[in-house]
Amino acid sequence: MNILEIIEAKKQGRELSAFQIEFVVNGFTAEDFADYQMSAFLMAVWFRGMTSEETAYLTGAMLHSGEELDTSGMSAPTADKHSTGGVGDKVSLLLAPLAAACGLKVPMLSGRGLGHTGGTLDKLEAIPGYRIHMDNDEFLGLTEKVGCAIIGQSGSIAPADGRIYAMRDVTATVDCVPLITASIMSKKLAAGPGTIIIDLKTGSGAFMDDMDRARELATALVAVGKLHGRRMSVVFSDMDQPLGRAIGHANETIEAFAALRSDGRNSAPADLVALTEDLVAEMVRVAGLESDRTAALSRVREAWDSGRAFENMLSWVEAQKGTLDPDREDFGLAVAPLALELKAPRDGWLAKINCRELGLSLADLGGARLQVDDPLDLTAGIDFLPKIGTHINKGDVLARLYCTESSKASDAASRILASLDFSEASVPENLLILDRYE
Ligand code: URA
Fold first, then answer.
1. Going by CA atoms, what residue is nearest to atom 2 of ligand 1?
2. Bridge partners (DSSP) listed for residue 334
3. One of 80, 161, 271, 278 is an active-site residue; which one?
4. Confidence of residue 23 (pLDDT cuts 50, 70, 90)
5. Nearest to 282, CA basis, from 273, 269, 292
6. Could you confirm whether 415 is annotated as catalytic?
7. DSSP string of 308-350?
8. What is the mean pLDDT of the chain?
9. Bridge pairing between strands 195-202 and 231-238
10. Does the N-terminal or the C-terminal CB of the chain have fewer CB atoms within 10 Å?
11. CA nearest ligand 1 atom 7, residue
12. Is residue 371 predicted with pLDDT exceeding 90?
C-alpha cells in the first residue's frame, strides 16, 4: 500500500478501509509523505466525501495519534459540551460548575479564539493566576474533587488534528463535514466524557450559516460519538446575534460569573440563561441522572438558585489558582476604560445583524486575533445591548466600547453600525433553540 493508491481510490470515489485511513493519518503525522500528497488526499475527500464508517475510522485514527484520558474511575457520570463557536459564547464558564452542582463530573479541554469567534481559554486567562496547563492526572484529580476543571488542550491530545487542520486551512478544505467531524470529535473523545452535548450554532456569526449543512454535521457527529460508545445529543441554537451582551474576554467572564449568582436566572441576559440551562439539562438527562427534560431542568434550576453552582465556580477557579473577588461586581478582573458609547442614528426595529462583522469589531479594539499568534488585549470589550426585534429610538445607546487606546474605538463603532439593519416595521424576536437531534 502507498499514499498514491489511497489518493487515487478516494479520487475515484471508492470507500477506504480503516487500515488505509490509519495509514494516511499515521504517515502524515510521522512525516512519511509530503504535504502536497496530504493536500491532494484532503481535496479528494472534499469532493468525494466519506461514509459514516470512514468518518469514524478517521476520527479513531486522529484520536489514537495522542493520549486519551481515562475517566472510568470517576465517582459520577462524566459529561462535556462542545460549541461550534460564536460571538459572546461564554456558556462553558457557567455550564461546567452548574453541571457539577447537578451531580456530573465535567473534564473540559478548551481552545483559543480565532477571528470573530472567542475561545474559552482566552476568557479564563483574564482571571489573574488561573492555570490553564496541568498534567492529565492533576486535571482528572481536580475534576473528581471539585466537579469540574477547564484546561487548555495540550499538544499530546489528538496531535494529528493539529497538523491536518493546519493543512486544511491552507488548501481550502476546512468546510467539509467528515473532516470537521473527525477534527471536533477526536479532541472531544480524548478527554473521556461519557456524554457529549453539541451546541451547534447556525446564523451569521456561526461557521455554519445554513441549517441543512448544520443538520448534516449533527448527523455525522452523533454517529461518530455513538460508534465510540458515547451518549450524544445536539441542540441547534441561533447565532444571528451575540449571546448575552458582553463580547470580549474579561467582560464575558464577568457576565458569565455574575449570571451564576443565586439571583442570576432573573437578572442575567435571558438568552444566556435559557441556552445554559437547556444545555446543562441535556447533559443531566442524556447522562442518565434524570429520565426526562422537565425533571432535568428542575434539577438545573434548583442547583442554580440555591447558589451551589456559584460556590462550585469559586472552588473550581480557586483550585486552578485563579484569584476572584466575589464581593465585587467585576470579580476583581481588569477591564479597559469606557472609550465610546455608540448611539442609534435613527428610529426603527433592529432587523438583522451581520454577527461575524460585529464579532470582528472586537479585533479593531485589540481584543481578538486575526492570526493565531496575534497579541490579545483581554481587557478590551464591547457591551452590545439590543436584540433583534427590539424597537430603538434615535440616540439610544446601542453599544459600549471598552479599550485602552480610545482612538481604536471609532473604527470598531463604524464596523458595528455597518453590521446592523434597521426596519421601519416591527420585526419578530429570533428563536434561540432552533431544533434538536440525537
Ligand atoms: N472546529 C474544529 O475543531 N475543527 C474543525 O474542523 C472545525 C471547527
1. 184
2. none
3. 161
4. very high
5. 292
6. no
7. HHHHHHHHHHHHTT----TTSTTTT---PPEEEEEE-SS-EEE
8. 95
9. parallel
10. N
11. 180
12. no
CA distance 438 to 436: 7
Q: Is the CB of 184 under 6 A from ligand 1?
A: yes
Task: Locate the domains of the chain by residue range.
Answer: 3-49, 79-155+169-319, 338-423
Read off the pLDDT of each residue in 256-275 and give the average, rounded to a whole number.
Answer: 98
| Band of residue 42 on the pLDDT scale cut at 50, 70, 90 | very high
The answer to whether 177 and 344 are in contact (CB under 8 A) is no
What was the pLDDT predicted at 335? 97
Name the class of domain 3-49.
Answer: mainly alpha
290 pLDDT above the threshold of 80: yes
Same fold, 3-49 and 79-155+169-319: no
Are residues 148 and 317 in contact, defined by beta-carbon separation less than 8 angstroms? no
Q: How far is residue 418's CA from residue 157's CA, in Å, rounded to a whole number?
A: 40
Which pLDDT does position 421 carry in this prediction? 97
Which stretch of 121-130, 206-215, 263-272 has the lowest confidence by average pLDDT?
206-215
Distance CA 305, CA 328 (A): 20
Residue 370 has pLDDT above 90, yes or no: no
CA distance 341 to 383: 10
Q: Does residue 82 have an active-site annotation?
A: yes
What number does the ligand 1 atom closest to the CA of 187 have? 3
Q: Is 394 a known active-site residue?
A: no
**Which of the residues 92, 183, 204, 361 is marked catalytic?**
183
Whole-angstrom distance, CA of residue 249 vs CA of residue 244: 13
Q: What is the pLDDT of residue 147?
A: 98
Matching CATH number, 79-155+169-319, of 1.20.272.10, 3.40.1030.10, 3.40.50.720, 3.10.450.50 = 3.40.1030.10
Determine which residue's CA is closest to atom 6 belonging to ligand 1.
180
What pLDDT score was predicted for residue 279?
Answer: 98
Domain 338-423 grouped into CATH 3.90.1170.30: yes
CA distances 261 to 20, 32, 94, 256, 312, Å, are 52, 53, 10, 9, 11
What pLDDT is stored for residue 153 in this prediction? 85
For residue 97, the one-letter residue type is P
